[in-house]
Amino acid sequence: MADWRITLDPTLRRRNFHHIGRISPIAPVASRERTASMSSLPTIAFTKFAEPKRGSVVVLAGDGRSIGDRAASSDPQQVLTRAFGISDFNAGLATLVDVLAPAGGKLDRIVALGVGKPAELDEYAWFRLGGTIGSQFRKAADVTVIVDVRDRDISAEEAASLAGGILLRAYSFDKYKTKKGTDGKDDSAPRFTMMVAKPAAVKKAFASIETTIAGVALARDLVNEPANMLGPREFGEKAKELEKLGVEVRILDEKAMRKLGMGALLGVAQGSVRPPCMAVMQWRGGRKGEAPVAFVGKGVVFDTGGNSIKPASGMEDMRGDVGGAAAVVGAMHALAARKARANVVGIIGCVENMVDGNAQRPGDIVTSMSGQTIEVLNTDAEGRLVLADAMWYCQQEFKPKVMIDLATLTGAIIVALGQHYAGLFSNDDGLADQLIAAGRATRERVWRMPLGPEYDKLIDSKNADMKNIGGRYGGAISAAQFLQRFVKDTPWAHLDIAGTAMGAPSTEISPSWATGFGVRLLDRFVRDNFEA
After folding, report:
1. Which helix (H) or strand (E) element contains residue 409?
2. How far is CA 151 from CA 47, 63, 158, 372, in A?
């Protein structure tokens, strides 16, 4: 059990709280110093084809259970041929046959990995294959992957994607576990050697993919972090660390946001003793003076629902309500690390939505930065209030060429789409098409949802310019309509990632509760449409 203490907080009087102090957990020193979740990643090297001498070997098998000549030379005893004959292995995509301690050699394992029909392999299939390999080797091992398929030339980018899948699968969030490796085995990371036709070309392609994967890992970490360790200020500090990569980062504190008139965001934050912040990140990789691409993320570090309190069951998952902000920070990391040739701005609004004597009440009316007034009928519809001020600030300050917001915004989008697609709402067909294409390529898929005046009427209020909920039906749509009222003439898209950013079904490359959804999507979107 954690120790607790009461400390006087000099900010409380200034913020008109009636408390005399605040209760805060004392974090153990060890937990403050723990390293990031991907610090023990596998090592991956790229070499020319040669005969493996030790450890484990992975070969790729196409339809008909055929393997390439390079792979066949690693199995002189034809162990795999015999294994194929007594198994139901059909070489379907990501299927396996595994031979332990094959006789007549020094290898520990020979694994045949099915690739299905080689001609049909796309980028995501190679990632899946890499993730499947990674799932088989979680502990220390020397693993040689022979990247060779019969009747199929494998490009440098495809081989690099295979290696990328291994890294994505390697992620785990165990930084707060004090006991690891209780089975007595070596828990150090495995070592992979990828045998390829052109090692230098694959290594170059992998360097670009690796930066994106680092951004995904960062986003996963931010969503997985418990709220007592990652408050609004700490989230802003994480964004500030991007300065090491050349990103310009400015933090707006509560005083600055109050001066700007961000009454919508501040209304959400007023129930927490932890003050809000807004992180503004700029990457200047494009032409000087060119308008940037803008990403805006919702960063509610914990969401109780406020006075419209959520049910207790499952509330612990609301640490994941930072999914949109996490994706923005992860994407900015990816873009800066690979020196993207584009100007990009990332803005995140970081708050905590708590129940408190000073918390916002249903029926309160707040004034947003835009000057529009909002009747807050449900304090659990708080993310749209945060985004309203963040989006307005983004447009006023940067005049972006396009603006995309990401948020774990509504349960309604999960009802509509499940957890395999994010909801896409947009005022611009071209922008929507670009995001859909990026989603197809990365398998971070989006599905376009409607907007229209009929839905907009749902948020009209008799007491203010608008209300923050629109009724029982079409909840994800009315939330998007609310956000659209804070969009000027900027091409804009809203991504509701409530079903995809946390708790989504595990895949070969996403074993974590937090998926990092949005990082690869945004990186690909910029790469394909805005880099010179």
Report:
1. none
2. 21, 11, 15, 63
pLDDT in tens, 460-479: 999 999 999 999 999 999 99
- Return d(Cα 360, Cα 366) in angstroms, integer: 10
User: Tokens at residue 153, please?
Assistant: 């030339």
Element (H, E) at 298: strand 293-303
User: SS3 for 67?
Assistant: strand
Residue type for position 393: Y
Place of tokens 């660390």: 241
Task: Identify any residues that bridge with 404 across adjacent strands, giving them in sequence order.
Answer: 295, 493
Taking a C-beta distance cutoff of 8 angstroms, is the pair 269, 354 a contact? no
Q: What rounded mean pLDDT belongs to the chain?
A: 90
Which ranges in 64-198 belong to alpha helices (H)? 69-72, 79-85, 123-136, 156-170
The full DSSP string for 2-37 is --EEEE--THHHHTT---S-EEEE---HHHHHPPPT
pLDDT in tens, 106-148: 889 999 999 999 999 999 999 999 999 999 998 878 999 999 9
Specify the DSSP class assigned to residue 305. -
Q: Tell me the residue length of the chain.
A: 532
Do the beta carbons of residue 12 and residue 274 sit within 8 Å? no
Using CA atoms, how far apart are residues 196 and 50, in angstroms rounded to an integer?
A: 10
Run of H or E residues at 347: strand 343-353
- The separation between the first and the last C-alpha atoms of the chain, rounded to the nearest angstrom, is 54
| Catalytic residue annotation | 310, 384
Helices (H) and strands (E) in the chain, counts: 17, 20
What is the phi-psi region of residue 516: left when phi exceeds 0, alpha when psi lies from -120 to 50, beta otherwise? left
Are the C-beta atoms of residues 47 and 128 closer than 8 Å to each other?
A: no
Say how far apart CA 24 and CA 70 lie, in whole Å.
60
Q: How far apart are CA 144 and CA 164, in angstroms?
A: 15
Q: For residues 443 and 491, what is the distance between their CA atoms, to the nearest angstrom?
A: 24
Determine the 3-state secondary structure of 280 from DSSP: strand
